[in-house]
Amino acid sequence: xxxxxxxxxxxxxxxxxxxxxxxxxxxxxxxxxxxxxxxxxxxxxxxxxxxxxxxxxxxxxxxxxxxxxxxxxxxxxxxxxxxxxxxxxxxxxxxxxxxxxxxxxxxxxxxxxxxxxxxxxxxxxxxxxxxxxxxxxxxxxxxxxxxxxxxxxxxxxxxxxxxxxxxxxxxxxxxxxxxxxxxxxxxxxxxxxxxxxxxxxxxxxxxxxxxxxxxxxxxxxxxxxxxxxxxxxxxxxxxxxxxxxxxxxxxxxxxxxxxxxxxxxxxxxxxxxxxxxxxxxxxxxxxxxxxxxxxxxxxxxxxxxxx
Length: 307
Ligand code: NAP
Fold this sequence. Notes:
With 307 residues, the protein is α/β, with parallel strands linked by helices. The chain contains twelve helices and twelve strands. Helix 10 (262-269) links the parallel strand 11 (250-253) and strand 12 (273-276). The relative contact order is 0.12.
């Protein structure tokens, strides 16, 4: 007999985790965030589960920052497969892990947890997801690019490490708090000791968040990546105005929204190629699915679910 589908909530809370009640299909995966209502992960992962005939569902958990430790303790005791972490938990969760892959330690942020025998192991799929997204959007590999990244938070750290590991030609980090960008650059210096020579500009560099600095760098980079939330809120301006952009650059905005982000609009106005973060969301999610189920994710099904 076909099992009856239960009515499920749009977002569960810590109180729900404490008094956990099974629904149909059973919830075995989810995303923890605050806010979390906007997350597209449930529609993407549920489409994949359905396609693969896996009888479980993925849902949202609205967990406040001071509830994270408690929420993860509850999840350890339930029969979950794993969870994703989003804003603001990616950095805070690192200290609550039982184990982690090497790049979680290096990045200091985690976006995928896998539960095995009551232990939580952390992974970070943002960097690899970004790399696949860039290849898909612009038909080019990071190793062939001079990259300027805006931001030095969790996403920027994952992306910068990926650029470094793939031996990109050049990496420039621009951050509002300059010292944070400098610290990130310093942490990657040993990965940039190779012999690539580019003329007068350094291969790895932190720059201040200033128009003049942007203007100089645009002439010396191929890819500009926004890894800040600038553009997320209505009324936000582009972090780099159109007049500073140029047709030779590719622009990747990690923000995903239905409408063009201000940076994507500025890039198009400048005659540059641009993409938003939907493809990164897709690929980091597909990599998470593969960690949880140890088989290939149905990429096209997932892509269709978020478009
Ligand atoms: P985070 O850790 O909070 O870092 C935010 C960064 O943005 C910091 O470097 C911060 O600079 C900078 N910033 C914040 N407000 C700014 C402003 N008004 N002007 C200039 N810089 C500003 O956040 P995160 O987790 O890295 O996320 C950053 C963005 O990446 C978010 O928009 C998120 O949507 C996106 N993201 C997308 C995906 C995807 O799959 N597409 C995955 C992960 C993240 P300071 O150091 O000076 O504070």
